């Protein structure tokens, strides 16, 4: 009897607790209302406590069906709202191309994204005739035969432009005899993967070449040239040059990596272009004298300030001026110009570094800022280039909302112009 009485008490307590929990929001609203009246009216604290106790008692006595009825009403409202949404509306809300088809692989509906991606599709058309690739045929067979409730394949659409998709197929609901195809565009991800693979391959090649040279000279020094002081000195100098080349390449790779990891520039910082270009020209004075190149200045009057990072812009102009001194050496001079510009969407400043050397053939200009791209491989390596300088320039200018334009004519030198917005 004692156990039965205890069980009944626990059951009653659980029921009361459940009722209080189900009525918690109503109870909270009532208590807030009472406290509000108490705050603004001349009411006894005893009365307030009595009313709150009454609210608790009423909530504890509230039939459980009320809360259940409320939940059922919410479910009914949700079901009614979803019934108002047709499959067409739901398909239109999907950003990716989506096609609904039936058991005969006939298109029932295609959303706007699918119409844009695969022109010429319409309800009543056969999917098997539209997508003839073996992987798509296998996907449709797998779903329609019931071998799989859902499946995924990779598919490439060739026309009008090549696009790579991850295609998922699944049945719609239960016993509807309808199925859905969703095409997730993977083209950009594939392009980035190819760029990453190419970059790693190029970087590996650039490092392997001097490393192989050093390894070969070490073998020679340990063998035939062991007792030849003249050969030993020559080989050690070559090895020193090759290690310097690897060090420059690694520095540029790290520089690119740091730039890619940096957040976009914070507003509020300004760079004095006049002072920055003067510093760059002074720092490259020894290189210019070594190459018998005279650097001329043509700076506009007045303030020449732009938003940006001083160290990064210094690196941009240092790379451009160093290239002009090295590859435009035969012209004998380089002109650095700073001028106000009204050509862009907003007022800005143009910095142009012009050499009078052999120039750049027109077919190379569109690709000259690509990583490891060289117009003349042998000349670039002779000048201790890494093939990354202009890539770094382009990356920094992108962060500054700036742009680089290149004009060149074979035999008449090249002009690299950096446009920087003034605000």
Can you walk me through this structure?
With 423 residues, the chain is an alpha+beta fold. It folds into four domains: 9-61, no CATH class; 88-189, Beta-Lactamase (2-Layer Sandwich); 193-261, Orthogonal Bundle (Helix Hairpins), CATH 1.10.287; 270-421, Heat Shock Protein 90. The protein contains 15 helices and twelve strands. The strands form three sheets. It has a five-stranded antiparallel beta sheet, sandwiched between helices. Strands 7-9-10-12-11 form a five-stranded mixed beta sheet. The protein has a two-stranded antiparallel sheet with strand order 6-8. Strand 4 (163-171) and strand 5 form a beta hairpin. Helix 1 (2-22) packs across helix 3 (45-61) and helix 2 (24-40) runs antiparallel to helix 3 (45-61). The longest helix is centred in the middle third of the chain and has 36 residues, at 187-222. The radius of gyration is 37 Å and the shape is extended. The termini are far apart.
Topology diagram in text:
Blueprint: H1 2-22, H2 24-40, H3 45-61, H4 64-83, H5 87-92, E1 98-102, E2 107-110, H6 112-117, H7 127-130, H8 134-144, E3 150-157, E4 163-171, E5 178-185, H9 187-222, H10 229-261, E6 270-272, H11 273-283, H12 285-290, E7 294-299, E8 305-307, H13 310-327, E9 333-341, E10 348-355, H14 377-382, H15 389-399, E11 403-408, E12 414-421
Parallel strand pairs: 7-9
Antiparallel strand pairs: 1-2, 1-5, 3-4, 4-5, 6-8, 9-10, 10-12, 11-12
Helix pairs in contact: 1-3, 2-3, 9-10, 10-15, 11-13, 13-15
């Amino acid at each position: 009897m004692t156990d039965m009485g205890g069980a009944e008490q626990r059951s009653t307590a659980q029921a009361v607790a459940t009722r209080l929990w189900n009525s918690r929001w109503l109870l909270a609203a009532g208590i807030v209302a009472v406290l509000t009246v108490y705050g603004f009216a001349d009411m006894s604290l005893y009365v307030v406590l009595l009313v709150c106790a009454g609210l608790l008692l009423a909530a504890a006595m509230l039939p459980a069906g009320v809360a259940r009825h409320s939940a059922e009403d919410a479910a009914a409202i949700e079901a009614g709202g979803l019934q108002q949404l047709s499959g067409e509306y739901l398909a239109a809300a999907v950003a990716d191309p989506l096609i609904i088809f039936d058991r005969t692989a006939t298109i029932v509906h295609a959303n706007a994204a699918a119409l844009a991606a695969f022109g010429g599709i319409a309800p009543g058309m056969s999917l098997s005739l539209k997508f003839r690739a073996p992987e798509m045929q296998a996907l449709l067979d797998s779903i329609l035969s019931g071998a799989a409730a859902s499946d995924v394949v990779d598919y490439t659409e060739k026309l009008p432009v090549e696009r790579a998709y991850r295609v998922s197929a699944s049945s719609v609901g239960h016993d509807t005899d309808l199925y859905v195809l969703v095409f997730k565009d993977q083209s950009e991800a594939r392009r980035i993967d190819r760029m990453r693979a190419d970059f790693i391959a190029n970087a590996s090649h650039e490092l392997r070449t001097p490393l192989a040279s050093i390894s070969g000279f070490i073998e020679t020094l340990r063998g035939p040239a062991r007792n030849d002081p003249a050969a030993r000195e020559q080989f050690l100098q070559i090895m020193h040059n090759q290690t310097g080349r690897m060090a420059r390449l690694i520095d540029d790779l790290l520089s690119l990596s740091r730039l890619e990891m940096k957040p976009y520039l914070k507003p509020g910082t300004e760079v004095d272009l006049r002072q920055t270009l003067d510093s760059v020209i002074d720092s490259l004075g020894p290189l210019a004298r070594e190459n018998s190149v005279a650097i001329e200045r043509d700076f506009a009057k007045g303030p020449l300030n732009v938003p940006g990072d001083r160290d990064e812009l210094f690196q941009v102009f240092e790379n451009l001026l160093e290239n002009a001194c090295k590859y435009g050496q035969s012209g004998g001079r380089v002109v650095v110009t700073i001028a106000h510009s009204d050509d862009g969407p907003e007022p800005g400043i143009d910095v142009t570094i012009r050499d009078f050397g052999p120039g750049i053939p027109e077919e190379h200009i569109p690709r000259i800022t690509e990583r490891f791209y060289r117009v003349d491989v042998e000349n670039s390596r002779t000048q201790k280039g890494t093939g990354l300088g202009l890539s770094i320039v382009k990356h920094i200018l992108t962060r500054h909302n700036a742009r680089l334009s290149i004009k060149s004519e074979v035999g008449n030198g090249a002009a690299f112009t950096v446009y920087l917005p003034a605000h």
